[in-house]
Q: What sequence folds into this?
């Protein structure tokens, strides 16, 4: 999800841009194969772990490496949520507190966003597990209440909420591309049949295609390289990149990602294996961008931390990717 | 820099049904002549809408699209909104509470109007109603 474009740009891209804006230079992204879909030319270190359970371990190792290089403060973000954070304020709070570990929270709950003193991490916190937990260190982490927009993107409905909020200017996301008519945004290379109907507000991503008599309506977004077949109606729905919807369908109140379909009204997620209905046309990645591999070391038996790994491995299970940012 | 295109507001009668639809269609089609016509159909008086009225709306929409224009609806009463939803015609049109909002929407995306629009609220409710459905990777 983190790497999938939403309104023309992924959450990862938006987060990286936000961090760059405040002058953060060194950024490492840790994740599975989806991270490899990032363009290779960006100035971001990519660390790929085949084993999804190993991502926090890779983060741990990366913090230590960066600490050895003299980087004092590290922002560690478990990416998943979309956060409009004032990074400068958070860093200032962290420095004012004078404590080594700050965790951001919003009005609902703590967020997977920590500000860590790397020196403390590699000395006092040696062997601690990631992600950090309350109670592991006395008085830490110190909570910092952020006031900006947060969408945890934990469920399909959260994704729809983000799209609505973007259309209604309730967050900083704006559809990319050109507003060809009020409330209708079309990105580069998108094709719309003359007799297709677009009812504002809608967004069409790069190289998206809408066939004859198709209808896109009511806050729908069709992301890059997706297609809508003849006569199909997309109503209050999100079609994620590289998704092809067949002809004559009624896709309402839904999120479609390739052949995965989430019906928000029925609260139901399913995989559809009939390519006449929906299909995934994401290209196979033939060549990964420049990246480092992180391999989970086999258990040595005597390492006491191996037992602790289990705790955070289970916590990390199910996460789609984690991102580590170092400033 | 082009000047904003003129928007015509057409007030519809109390009944848009078989007897009136044909005449109305001719009137509306006259308003759709020319390039990129912009038309708001004011439903504030309308209390009756039948299949002939729906067909009239669709024909007018088709005409407007042929000319690269658009038709928007405004001030739709609840009993008429039910018919529009029943026939699923509601999703073919932008529907506004006030004709002025519909007129404005031809010139810029009226966020405030959408925020206050019951149709938009329904969309938001539908997004809120489900509590599962993990986002696929």
A:
């Amino acid at each position: 999800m983190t790497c999938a474009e939403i309104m023309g740009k992924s959450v990862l891209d938006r987060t990286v841009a936000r961090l760059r804006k405040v002058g953060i230079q060194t950024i490492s992204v840790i994740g599975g194969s989806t991270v490899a879909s990032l363009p290779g030319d960006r100035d971001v270190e990519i660390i790929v772990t085949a084993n999804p359970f190993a991502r926090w371990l890779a983060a741990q190792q990366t913090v230590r490496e960066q600490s050895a290089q003299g980087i004092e403060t590290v922002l560690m973000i478990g990416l998943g949520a979309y956060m409009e954070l004032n990074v400068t304020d958070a860093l200032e709070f962290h420095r004012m507190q004078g404590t080594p570990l700050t965790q951001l929270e919003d009005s609902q709950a703590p967020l997977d966003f920590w500000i860590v003193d790397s020196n403390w991490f590699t000395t006092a916190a040696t062997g601690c597990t990631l992600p950090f937990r309350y109670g592991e260190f006395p008085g830490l982490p110190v909570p910092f209440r952020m006031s900006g927009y947060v969408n945890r993107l934990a469920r399909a409905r959260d994704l729809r909420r983000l799209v609505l909020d973007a259309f209604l200017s309730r967050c900083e996301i704006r559809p990319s591309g050109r507003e060809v008519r009020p409330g209708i945004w079309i990105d580069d290379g998108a094709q719309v049949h003359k007799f297709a109907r677009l009812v504002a507000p809608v967004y069409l991503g790069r190289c998206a295609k809408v066939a004859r008599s198709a209808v896109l309506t009511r806050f729908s977004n069709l992301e890059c390289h997706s297609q809508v077949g003849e006569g199909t109606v997309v109503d209050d729905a999100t079609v994620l990149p590289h998704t092809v919807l067949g002809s004559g369908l009624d896709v309402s109140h839904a999120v479609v990602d390739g052949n995965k379909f989430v019906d928000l009204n029925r609260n139901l997620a399913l995989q559809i294996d009939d390519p006449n209905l929906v299909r995934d046309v994401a290209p196979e990645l033939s060549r990964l961008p420049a990246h480092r591999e992180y391999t989970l070391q086999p258990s040595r038996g005597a390492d006491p931390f191996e037992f602790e790994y289990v705790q955070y491995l289970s916590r990390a299970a199910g996460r789609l990717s984690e991102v580590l940012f170092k400033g | 820099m082009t000047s904003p295109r003129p928007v015509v507001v057409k007030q519809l009668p109390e009944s848009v049904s078989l007897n009136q639809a044909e005449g109305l269609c001719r009137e509306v089609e006259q308003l759709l002549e020319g390039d990129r016509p912009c038309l708001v159909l004011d439903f504030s008086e309308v209390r009756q809408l039948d299949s002939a009225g729906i067909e009239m709306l669709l024909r007018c929409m088709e005409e407007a699209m042929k000319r690269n224009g658009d038709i928007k609806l405004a001030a739709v009463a609840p009993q008429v909104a039910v018919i529009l939803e029943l026939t699923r015609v509601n999703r073919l049109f932008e529907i506004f509470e006030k004709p002025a909002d519909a007129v404005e929407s031809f010139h810029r995306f009226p966020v405030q109007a959408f925020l206050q629009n019951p149709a938009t609220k329904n969309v938001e409710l539908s997004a809120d109603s489900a509590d599962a459905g993990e986002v696929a990777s």
